[in-house]
Input
Amino acid sequence: MSAASLRITEIFYSLQGETTTSGLPTAFIRLTGCPLRCHYCDTEYAFFGGEKHSISDILAQVKGYQPRYVTVTGGEPLAQPNCLPLLTKLCDAGYRVSLETSGALPIAEVDSRVVIILDLKTPASGESGRNLWENLPHLKSGDEIKFVICDRSDYEWARLMLDQYRLGEGGRELLFSPSQGQLDAALLAEWIIEDNLPVRLQMQLHKQLWADRPGT
Output
């Protein structure tokens, strides 16, 4: 397993900008490649290229940061089958590991110790037809479901999904995030308050801190 390799766009250490661990120092492993093309994607540079690294090399790089938290992201990390053994090895090393996935690929085989951040695609993303609803029963307590909201129609759709799939049950966190440049965060906050939704408004901390830097 340690000889297995993955195509990696970057490995870096920063503050977590999203999810319920926002603000915590985290090592990020960004895998290359994604089968989706969301209209608001801000990591298009991870679609192609990258360099192959063995899992042992990835673990060595991560260890150098001495992190408590590790996030595996993309692109779409599960598009590379060796993402699964990487996640397991990271958990075995004692890190608190999270996986950021679009939910368009199966999550059933993801190590149960991993916190799954499932990004359900809204209609305005252009990729809502790729949502794999069969993934939802595999989410566990402590996992998180994210919606990137682009407009009022997205918001109403997300509300419907909350009810239709009873997403607030089972100890899962629900995140509503405004699409940067498309929806004012204060307006989304007002909608959430008016409807008393059981969701967390999520801002992208890294963009607030480093909006003028490439890759943020």
